[in-house]
Amino acid sequence: MDEAAAKQVMVLACSGIGKTWGALARETAYELVERVRPGVATTTCLPLLVINDPEAKRLVMEHPVITLDGCPKACARKSVEALGKKVDQPLETIQFYTAHKELKPEGIAQLNEAGLKLARVAADELAATVDRLAAGEQT
Prior knowledge:
With 139 residues, the chain is of the alpha/beta class. It is 47% helix and 12% strand. The chain has a four-stranded parallel beta sheet, sandwiched between helices. Helix 1 (20-36) packs across helix 6.
């Protein structure tokens, strides 16, 4: 991928406070932004969209967006769509567990080792999606 032509990709995780699947969404986003695709994948605080923060809105509107939701309420996806922006790749964290049932996440504030490993695996699997979106391709 031509780095000069690459776009940043926004990764927005649900807030999911007090829920294991929300914690998995956040950990997956951190893994993607900090380890797997630093400098390409980026994130912002989801509640900033809810309060109409101009910088958060700009980032979402100007870049491709992946949402990671912890439940079918899809708060991350709906927050982006409320701005009039189509989410490029909406996901629910249960999809990753379904594909890797040997890694059962548990915990709320802190995921167990299986949950942390699942977040790493999910982020690794999302690398190709980030690359395609950064290159301007559709998923």
